[in-house]
Task: structure prediction
Amino acid sequence: MPLGVENTEGKIDQREQVEYAAEYDDSHQHTTGEIAFYHRLRSTNPWPDAVQPSLRLAIMEYVKSVLNIAEQLRESMCLAMNINPQDVDHLFGPCEGTDPSFWSLKLVSYPPVESHVATAGGEPLQGVGAHTDSNFMTLICQDSHSSGLQVQNVHGGWIDVPPTKPNILVCNIGELSEIWSNGYFLATPHRVLRHSSNTHSRTSMPIFYNPRLDTVIKPINTDGLLWERSEQKQWRRESNKLLGSVGKNSFKSLARSHPKVFQRHHNDLRVLADGRIVPREAKNTGSL
Result:
């Protein structure tokens, strides 16, 4: 994805990226209908083996290691909510006859900021706008030299995440975790800003960890849990429907961030204001 094709809430994000995802032996690229459309996410990756033959092996070894860490964090979340971790293993697969967990990875580059493209008033550029991730959990290996990532606390303040060494992963909670935990864990609002002081590019490798693509997340019973968080309101993107369907919530992110790609390859579908995807001819905008 070259610079200038991705956006957050209609404002262009200043980054470019290559994206890979879990591979499947079968492909559902031509499925139609409001239930099956997200199976278009099932495919194989166009690896550049001819020009960079080591990339596939390096990426897959890295993904395997990070997914192992994500599973350990998921088990810790279960223990925090007095849930047997084995009780949710089937959601993430692979079980007999089921798919593995649905993951994706981005190799992101935020270009350096040149003085002549600085925004009016000296405001920083939008590397990527404020949002919450649509998946279950995100683990980020970020640049050890260039800053920009910020997360928001429950008081509405933005906190800088300092550059970290390659052996440190930054963890963002995703929307599916919020649904699953019935709000016990909140999706992490975050953004990336690019200041005039960012004279070097910033790289980032987020891995987006999910249950299986066909999984529908339902809230657990949180009665009896000790809630240590006060009742401050969390930032929420305006008109953002949190969907328990892994496939639908994942497709929501694609449709909103890449409208030109969405129109080119999925013109039989349309995205509603709250992010839900419906057949283009559908009239009913009720609950899906």
Q: What stands out?
A: The CA atoms of residues 149 and 259 lie 24 Å apart.
